[in-house]
Amino acid sequence: MDVDRLLPTPEAADLIALTREIADRELSPRVDAHEAAETYPEGLFATLGRAGLLGLPYPEEYGGGGQPYEVYLQVLEELAARWAAVAVATSVHTLACHPLYAFGTDAQKERWLPSMLEGRLVGGYSLSEPQAGSDAAALACKAERQEDGGYRITGTKAWITHGGRAGFYALFARTAPGGHGVSCFLAPGEAEGLSFGAPERKMGLQAVPTTSAYWDGALIEEDRLIGTEGQGLQIAFSALDNGRLGIAACATGLAQAALDAAVDYANQRTTFGRRIVDHQGLGFLLADMAAAVDAARATYLDAARRRDLGRPFSRQASAAKLIATDTAMKVTTDAVQVLGGYGYTRDFPVERYMREAKIMQIFEGTNQIQRLVISRGLARPEK
Ligand SMILES: Cc1cc2nc3c(=O)[nH]c(=O)nc-3n(C[C@H](O)[C@H](O)[C@H](O)COP(=O)(O)OP(=O)(O)OC[C@H]3O[C@@H](n4cnc5c(N)ncnc54)[C@H](O)[C@@H]3O)c2cc1C
Question: What per-residue confidence (pLDDT) applies to 1?
Fold first, then answer.
């Protein structure tokens, strides 16, 4: 059953209806085969781009959808309920557009932003390295300014969602030593001296590749520096505040899908002469799952509304990511339990949901790192 959403405008309600239609037509029929075979859904992101779903929270003047986060995130949730990998890649693309939109010059935005927001260039976000995940300031990939113009990029980046498939990467590389020596670049998807590793062999989200990128002295134009040299970590963390809301919405959609599958099953399966939903022990498990999904949605929507009003939302975004992804892990695990032995097979989607939920607690800042952000937001200056 469709989630009964509170939406701010009739236009937003139409957008959710359109998203459901596209997701039911383009995502649901393809997800199982692509996830099982670990094959990329060719052409799917172009379809999402043409439908206007790849630039929703950005202004219409640049080809975006002009939607508040409150609405964009509910679109993501609908996608994630059908196909988590596609929703996550959509969220990462939207995150990868943030540096240019929020920190680029007008000329840079005019040059690149429309093709990004209209989905003709799908994006990746390249912050992590093999030795620098949670501790992003430890990144080592170098960007050396050349006397005759441009930057030479040398080093290894890791864990790039859409790696090797994206048309651009928000790339973070070191222009000087220390925490203030990181800079942000809008790197092209193809360049001489840029290659990608084989897709990681993951527990879930197998249809969209996650790869390393090897930068072997590739030269990129000077104009691809976003913001100023040394502003990279500020840009990276600003983007992540938004991206964490996207992951919270994806996790909520995944939890909702698991809840729906569990409820359907519990209303049909009988044991001891009655439907399992009518056994109080199982009914209460479903009740806890439903309450947790409601709470996850309310938490991310609160953070999104703060963002839409221009209020600080970093702490709330971390809380939303923490709560929604822990909820997804618990609810998907419980959904497997509700289906009993069948839940443990690939004949039902709940085992996939459970595998997909795990990564939500890890990327875009592990949930330990979210606690760090939240606790720092609570700490007062020492007297
Ligand atoms: C499928 C997938 C897709 C990804 N997509 C992207 C992407 O598109 N772009 C990108 O840049 N990265 C991406 N990542 C990388 C991801 O963001 C990192 O894996 C994550 O930030 C954790 O970094 P790490 O793996 O190096 O773990 P580490 O940082 O080594 O952490 C290991 C453990 O120590 C804990 N820990 C570390 N520091 C602290 C601390 N101070 N206090 C308490 N606990 C701590 C962590 O929570 C974790 O449990 C992706 C990863 C995966 C698996």
Answer: 79
**Closest residue CA from atom 2 of ligand 1:** 159
Q: Are residues 58 and 45 in the same domain?
A: yes
Which of 97, 117, 137 terminates a domain? The answer is: 117
**Which of 26, 129, 356, 364 is an active site residue?**
364
One domain for residues 244 and 362: yes
State the distance from the centre of ligand 1 to the C-alpha of 17, rounded, in angstroms: 35
Residue range 311-325, pLDDT digits in tens: 999 999 999 999 999
Backbone φ, ψ for residue 196 (5° rounding): -125, 150
Q: Which of 165, 200, 237, 362 should be mutated for ligand 1, with most atoms under 8 A from CB? A: 362
22-35 pLDDT tens trace: 999 999 999 999 99
- Residue where the block lists tokens 């260039």: 121
Active site residue 26: no
State whether 42 and 111 are in the same domain: yes
Q: Which pLDDT score, from 0 to 100, does residue 383 have?
A: 80
Q: For residue 195, how far is the Cα from the chain centroid?
A: 23
Ligand 1 binding pocket (C-beta < 6 A) is 92, 124-128, 133-134, 159-161, 202, 205, 210, 359, 362-366, 368-369, 372
Q: Which atom of ligand 1 is nearest to the CA of 124?
A: 8
One domain, residues 367 and 245? yes
Same domain, 343 and 246: yes
Ligand 1 center from residue 162 Cα (angstroms)? 17
Q: Are 222 and 295 in contact (CB under 8 A)?
A: no
Give the number of domains in the chain. Answer: 3
Q: Is residue 112 part of a domain?
A: yes
Atom from ligand 1 closest to the CA of residue 362: 20
Point out the ligand 1 atom lying closest to the alpha carbon of residue 366. Answer: 47
Instruction: Please tell me whether residues 268 and 366 are part of one structural domain.
Output: yes
Residue 180 structural domain: 123-230
At how many degrees (to 10) do helices 314-338 and 280-308 cross?
Answer: 160
Q: How far apart are CA 24 and CA 29, in angstroms?
A: 7
Cα separation of 211 and 196, whole Å?
A: 6
Tally Cβ neighbours within 10 Å of residue 102: 14
Structure tokens at 333: 């695990």
User: Could you report the per-residue pLDDT of 185-199, keeping only the tens digit for each?
Assistant: 999 999 999 999 999
